[in-house]
Design goal:
This is Outer membrane protein. The chain is α+β, with helices and mostly antiparallel strands. The protein has twelve helices and five strands. A hairpin with a 3-residue loop joins strand 4 and strand 5.
Length: about 280
């Protein structure tokens, strides 16, 4: 492991034209530390070891080093863009690791749903979870893609989690979907509401309920009941636990979290990752 940076070695490395890419990489690392506001400890540009009393710079030395970095950035501005890109990549990697850990920690709840909300093969070897909002344009776009995906992969168990994230109309539709489920019409209600473009509202929902031969009085009561609200609250809590920020979002087993509308090829790539574990 390389030792901490000294003022003299930093100056030498930043001004040595023979160092080429190595110098640029080390300046980028140094810039990362400065941009992050970190103390310059444990960071090496020169690759030499120094005594512990040189691990922390004086204010004068630090100011001089900052000036050296500024000069280097003037000569090669790409150093800064590389540093920023590195920070972004590191943050993205950390976020991905955090999300995957959350998925593992909450997988039992995430992969569980009432039988009517499980599609494909109920005994499938691979579980895919979909968070969807019935009013979401992208979720509607994905509906036929998901149907095709399940038809092509009979080993997939799809768990649907309806979450109302787009306002009052979404909440009403989500309540209607689960209320219809209590009369055996979950899938029919979900498909109707996600295919139609009629103005949302209770009047329309009553019409749909009648067309599906539901007991409308019971349907309206169930929409407001604790059972339906409990399902929606649980779904929203699970979505929050794994950092879902929009719909649709897919969990391909514990291997991948995929937000947004996906193409068939993308879904199959994520599925392959889930099969490999």
């Amino acid at each position: 492991m390389e030792g901490p940076l000294s003022f003299s070695s930093a100056h030498e490395m930043l001004h040595n034209p023979m160092e080429g890419t190595t110098m640029k990489q080390r300046v980028k690392s140094f810039s990362l530390a400065l941009l992050a506001g970190l103390p310059l400890m444990g960071l090496s540009l020169a690759g030499t070891s120094h005594a512990a009393d040189e691990a922390v710079f004086t204010a004068k030395q630090r100011a001089a080093i900052v000036q050296i970095v500024r000069e280097a950035l003037k000569n090669d501005p790409s150093i800064l863009s590389d540093a920023i890109r590195s920070i972004q990549q590191q943050a993205s990697s950390q976020q991905e690791a955090h999300v995957k850990a959350a998925v593992r920690a909450n997988w039992q709840a995430l992969s569980t749903a009432p039988s009517y909300a499980v599609r494909g093969n109920p005994q499938g070897q691979v579980t895919v979870v979909e968070f969807l909002d019935p009013r979401c344009t992208y979720c509607r776009h994905m509906a036929p893609v998901v149907d095709q995906f399940l038809a092509r992969h009979p080993d997939v168990r799809l768990v649907e989690k309806v979450i109302p994230v787009l306002g009052d109309a979404s909440l009403l539709d989500a309540q209607a979907i689960y209320a219809a489920a209590f009369q055996g019409q979950y899938d029919a209600m979900r498909r109707r509401l996600m295919e139609e473009t009629a103005k949302p509202g209770m009047e329309h929902l009553r019409d749909v309920a009648k067309s599906l031969k539901l007991d409308v009085a019971r349907f309206e009561k169930d929409m407001k009941g604790q059972a339906v609200m409990g399902l929606l609250t649980a779904n929203l809590g699970q979505a929050q636990s794994v950092g879902v920020q929009g719909t649709p979002t897919f969990l391909f087993g514990q291997a991948a979290v995929a937000p947004g509308a996906l193409g068939m090829e993308q879904m199959e790539q994520f599925l392959e990752a889930a099969r490999k574990g």
